[in-house]
Specification:
The structure holds two protein chains of two kinds. Chain A has four helices and no strands. By secondary structure, chain A is mainly alpha-helical. Chain A has one domain. In chain A, helix 2 (55-85) packs antiparallel against helix 3 (95-127) and helix 3 runs antiparallel to helix 4 (136-160). Chain A is elongated and about 65 Å long. The model of chain B has no long low-confidence stretch (mean pLDDT 76). The longest helix of chain B is centred in the first third of the chain and has 31 residues, at 8-38. By secondary structure, chain B is an all-alpha fold. Chain B is built from four helices and no strands. Chain B has one domain. Chain B has helices at residues 8-38, 40-58, 67-91, 98-103. The chains are: A mainly alpha, B mainly alpha. At the A-B interface, helix 1, helix 2 and helix 3 of A face helix 1, helix 3 and helix 4 of B.
Chain lengths: 161, 105
């Protein structure tokens, strides 16, 4: 499972460690508890039977979500920093906004997409299905690539004026 | 926080998850502190929002103890922070804000 910054192995990588142990869904109300929430399982559908997954998978899923949330927060901070803290680009008055505002918007989009991703992953875990492919890494890479290109253009424009 | 009588294989992941929540709360507080310099009101809002996220881990028996609700709280808070940052960037009182720049044209 993609987990920027955390460096934890994916639940599937660890599957071999826990053969034969179903994992407690009890064990306190801390972050470790794998409580069933309708928002995580989605609307009732006639599909594969859902069982409570190993709590370690739920915890790994939750950590992945939190890592994406911190990435989103970092993007918002970076966007705000570009807009408010960088000196203006000579000759390109809106240059900082062209670079910073997409980062802030990407932060909001990633926060919502991470929640949707986590919900889908949790549903797949409950059904014993393979984890769905996440669009988040591609979205992040594409947007950061785009913003970097725009930033390079703004810097070149301001240098030539 | 993970309880003392948890099955040993789950205590470690639960601790890691607890630390991840703490890092997230610290990240919120950090961006709130940074925003204080730019916009005191928005910074205060973000700082205050970091408190429930920290409480989620350290007071597990609060009303937000349900996993789904905790995660929605984080998502909603990041979106609120992003909207506040967007508002500061576009409508801020600084002469360099986008609104002022566009009005000046």
């Amino acid at each position: 499972m993609t987990r920027p910054g955390d460096g934890h192995e994916s639940p599937h990588d660890r599957q071999g460690d826990q053969a034969g142990w179903a994992g407690p869904s009890a064990g306190g109300a801390g972050p470790g508890s794998a409580e069933t929430d309708p928002a995580e399982t989605g609307p009732a559908e006639t599909g594969p039977a859902e069982t409570e997954p190993d709590a370690r998978f739920t915890l790994a899923n939750e950590r992945t979500f939190l890592a994406w949330s911190r990435t989103a927060l970092a993007l918002v901070a970076a966007g705000l920093g570009v807009v408010q803290l960088l000196p203006p680009f000579p000759g390109v008055p809106v240059g900082r906004h062209v670079v910073g505002i997409p980062l802030i918007v990407l932060g909001a989009v990633i926060a919502v997409a991470a929640y949707a991703d986590m919900t889908r992953n949790q549903r797949a875990l409950r059904r014993g299905q393979p984890l769905p492919r996440s669009v988040l890494p591609r979205l992040l890479a594409a947007t950061i690539g785009g913003v970097a290109t725009v930033a390079a253009i703004v810097v070149l424009l301001s240098a030539t004026r | 926080m993970p309880s003392q009588n948890q099955h040993p294989p789950i205590a470690d992941p639960a601790n890691r998850t607890s630390l991840a929540w703490t890092r997230t709360a610290v990240a919120f507080a950090a961006i709130g502190g940074a925003m204080l310099k730019v916009s005191p009101v928005a910074g205060c809002v973000v700082l205050v929002l970091s408190v429930p996220i920290w409480l989620v881990v350290h007071r597990p028996h609060t009303a937000v103890a349900s996993s789904g609700r905790r995660l929605r709280l984080v998502t909603g808070t990041v979106v609120v922070v992003a909207l506040a940052a967007l508002a500061v960037a576009i409508f801020g009182h600084s002469p360099d804000s986008l609104g002022q720049l566009l009005r000046g044209r």
